[in-house]
Structure formats: C-alpha cells, structure tokens
C-alpha cells in the first residue's frame, strides 16, 4: 500500500454568517468519502475550514459593528465548529486563512512566483462581484447583475499585480484531455475545456482599495486577492513551502497532491483553471481530481444571503431536528445533480431514521452480512448514496417481514463508522 495519505478537501467557506445546509451538503459528502477510505485501512486526511479575508467578510463584519478578526473568531468558535460536531463531521484539520501558518506560507509561495517571473504589475478595470469575490466577464452578467447573486456588480479600477494565467492555457487543456478523471463529472470537464479554449486573460491577484487580507510581500500597500489566498489553503494546511526535512515538509510529501477537491459547481473555474495553473507555475503536482457537485436549491434558486433563502443548520437543530436526520437528508441524494431542499426531505429522513432504529432494536433481524458488504463496497468516489439507502430500506422491509439471521449491533457499528449515522 502506498505511503501517501488519501487527501480530500472541501472548499473553505466565507465567514460572513453561520453555516447553512449548502455548506453542510459538501462537508457531509466529504465526510462520507473519507470514512469509506478509512474503513479500507488507508491513511486519510480530511480538511475543511474558513475563508476569512476579502471585502465580503470585511463588509459583513462592518455591518455587524465588529472588527473583521473578532467577527471571524466569534463565528468560527460559536457557529462553524459546533455545527460540524453536531453533524458528526470527522475532519482531521480545520484551516483558517487568518492563521499564521497559512499567511506565512501564502507569502512565501507568492514571492517564489514573483521570482520565477510569473507575476507583473498592471491595471485592472472592469466588473467585480463582491458576493463571488470574482472579476467578472461579460458573459457572467445578466443586465449588469451577477447571475449567481442577482445583484449589481461594482466597477473596479486599480493598479494591481497580475499572475500570468494565460501561459497555462495549453498545459491545462492537455492535462484534462490526457486525464479526464481530473475534472468530474464530464459536464464540468467540458465546461472547463470550453472556457480554456475560448481564451483566458491574466489574473489580477492583488487589491489596493482595502486592507483586510494578506499583504503582498514586496508591496505591503496591497493585499493578496482573496481567491489566490484561499486556494492555497489546500496546500498550506499540509506544509507548502516548508523545508523538505522539516516536519511540515515531510507531511507535505506524504499528503500532496490532493486526491479530491470537492466543490460546488459555481466555483469550478477557480479550482480547475486558476488553482492548477498556480501549481504548475510553482512546479508542483496538480490535484488528482476536482469534483463539482450540484447545488442545493431553496425555492428553486441557489442559496444566497442576498436572496434571503438561507437555511441555517443551527436553526434546524434549535427547532428540534435530529442532526442525524439532517445528515440523512443530505446524503440520500445523488451529488451529480441539483437537490431541491424542502421540509418533505427532512420529514422523509426523520421517518427513515425512526424505521431504522426500530428495526435495529429488534432481537431478531434480517441477515446483515450482505448489507454490510454493500456499504463497504458501494460508497466509492461516485457518491451514489441513494443506492446505499435503498439497500438499507430493503433490509428494514425484510426484517419487518420476519426474516432473521442478522446481527443488529454489528450493523449499527458499521452505519456509524461509514455513514456517520450515530444510532
């Protein structure tokens, strides 16, 4: 068996509010995949965390009368980490972009790209969406508004530092054509290749009109563009730029490259275009897979604070919803397509749990060996969880019809270990 750990990451989430079920959707999926790899006896490293720089977070703090750092500290400790504990998320690390370990490594990485000639000074003028923290192209707008947030964009004019992203168009196209599994599903890969073939401009990687961010090491009047900062978390968290003989350097060698970056489809381009280009510029291996899952929709739209359709996990728990029911509701869907969230999904999940617990409490249950084998073999990278839940329901039906010969205690342990469903 290889000494390399199976390394999976979620995006790091903006700390402009508490975690909602869209955040949980991705994090629970990552938890499921890493549990599956652990039961195979593999070394596993599961990373999640928070993105704490940029205008979006700064303005949220200001709107609440708080200092940005205090705002982030409070939300992380009172909202984010507790929710992941409620949902039985078994992450190995939680990275914050305001931590010294991240900021110092980001500056060293950026300095190295500057020294290699991949960064230059230029002027950016154009539309910017603070909600996305993204420089927008004309095709990204609908009547002057961001298509994702349905809010007017802001026009930006700044002298910034630019990354030579255009240098990596051909290498990226070749990478995806030679390694189709590096970006999934197929629709996501096609989108990325089409975007690259349409031509890519160099990327502004600094901002000069506000100061909430990591200072550019050679120009401290500017801060590093929040996405350039944030994408590096996947590597800074495991020791990027540390000396090879150091503890961090050895851990980086054991962990990198990431095996799976699990992301929402709205941030696909950042992860499948900008991020691998940054790594190519540094001479580092690119991630083995970027998997872009569907959206969790509320009222037919992607959740957004600006649209007022957020469903907070903490609110559901305060309403008395079993955290395990939330977990089941999120897991029992295929991640390749969008999921329409509704109260009926939660009700179905609660009924599923009630039925499962009643059957596991019986002294005589249907055979559990084949179900356990299915659980141990079916929870692969494809995330086809609906089939798994169908198998569990079939087992419940068999038990209720009087079939015997199973071990309920063993099944309960496997459900806890693999699905994170504490019964």
């Amino acid at each position: 068996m290889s000494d390399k750990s199976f390394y999976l990451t979620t995006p790091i989430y903006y700390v402009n509010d508490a975690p909602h079920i869209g955040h949980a959707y991705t994090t629970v999926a990552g938890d499921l995949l890493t549990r599956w790899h652990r039961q195979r006896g593999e070394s596993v490293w599961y990373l999640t965390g928070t993105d704490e720089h940029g205008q979006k977070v700064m303005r949220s703090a200001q709107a609440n009368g708080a200092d940005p750092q205090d705002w982030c500290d409070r939300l992380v400790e009172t909202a984010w980490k507790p929710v992941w504990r409620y949902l039985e998320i078994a992450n190995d690390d939680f990275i914050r972009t305001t931590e010294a370990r991240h900021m110092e490594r980001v500056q060293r990485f950026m300095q190295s790209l500057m020294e290699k000639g991949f960064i230059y000074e230029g002027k950016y003028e154009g539309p910017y969406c603070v909600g996305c923290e993204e420089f927008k192209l004309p095709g990204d707008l609908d009547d002057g508004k961001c298509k994702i947030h349905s809010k007017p964009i802001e026009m930006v004019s700044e002298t910034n530092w630019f990354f030579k992203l255009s240098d990596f168009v051909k290498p990226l196209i070749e990478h995806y054509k030679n390694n189709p599994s590096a970006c999934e599903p197929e629709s996501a890969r096609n989108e990325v290749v089409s975007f690259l073939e349409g031509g890519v401009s160099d990327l502004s990687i600094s901002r000069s009109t506000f100061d909430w961010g990591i200072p550019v090491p050679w120009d401290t009047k500017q801060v590093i563009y929040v996405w350039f900062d944030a994408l590096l978390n996947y590597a800074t968290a495991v020791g990027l730029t540390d000396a090879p003989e150091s503890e961090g350097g050895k851990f980086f060698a054991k962990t990198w490259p990431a095996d799976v970056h699990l992301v929402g489809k709205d941030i696909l381009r950042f992860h499948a275009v900008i991020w691998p280009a940054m790594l190519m510029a540094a001479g580092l291996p690119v991630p083995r897979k970027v998997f872009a899952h569907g959206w969790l929709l509320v009222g037919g739209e992607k959740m957004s604070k600006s649209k007022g359709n957020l469903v907070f996990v903490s609110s559901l728990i305060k309403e008395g919803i079993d955290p395990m029911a939330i977990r089941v509701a999120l897991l029992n869907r295929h991640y390749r397509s969008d999921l329409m969230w509704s109260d009926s999904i939660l009700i179905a999940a609660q009924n599923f749990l009630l039925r499962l617990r009643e059957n596991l409490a019986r002294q005589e249950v249907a055979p559990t060996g084949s179900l356990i084998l299915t659980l141990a073999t079916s929870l692969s990278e494809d995330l086809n969880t609906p089939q798994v839940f169908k198998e569990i329901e079939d087992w419940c039906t068999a038990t209720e019809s009087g079939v015997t010969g199973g071990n309920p205690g063993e099944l309960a342990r496997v459900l806890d270990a693999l699905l994170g469903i504490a019964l």
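The longest helix spans residues 21-39. The mean pLDDT is 92.
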